Amino acid sequence: MRAFRGATAHEVIAVRLDPGEAVRPALARAAQEMQLAAAAILTAYGSVDPIALEVPLTGTTPPAIFPIEEAGPAQIVAAQGIVASGSVEATLSVARRNETLSGRLLDGTRVRFGAVFVLLRVGGVRWSFVVDPDSGMPQFDAHAAGAPTQSVMLGGRPVDPAAVALVPPALIRRYGALPIARTTDTLIVAMADPNNPFAIDELRRRTGLRVQAIGVDPRELIRAIEQLLA
To answer: Most Cβ neighbours (<10 Å): which of 13, 109, 132, 140?
Structure first.
């Protein structure tokens, strides 16, 4: 047994999936777009059709698992899992007519009328799946996410790594917009051009927070970005 510690809860994210989308690939795509190094799937609601799961086969020795694909519609009852560096592993329980089906989520499960999955972004670590050399099976692994050992200062104030983690690095570099702090509903962002409406709108859309832009020296900003995102 191994225990992985050091992670902190950062942000609750709701991912809405549209009718016809394959659930697992869509969640993986959303995780990659948001650059989620580690997240937990907390719950979900909605409907699916068809249903593709990997379920245990009872009455066999040794125990076995096999894939099933059933016609829907079915209502999502529960969902749990993890997002590890863009990969998604989850279990899904659905109710269909007078039965409940539960198992590992496979790519063939598709949204019928709509679905929402709630994720908890985890900071301070990077989760991944690595192949065990003995069994050939994927094993969960975790290590500390890269972070500066010393505090980074910008505009006379320390940069909060938790605020930086809310915005994808590609977006920070594209707009020269570095989050430095967060209050309850506001993200404070250091920018060489604090009047750039495109950057502010994009940051607001990506984070769901109000954006307060402050102007800083462009050279200091570039140094801070390179130090934090190296």
So the answer is: 109
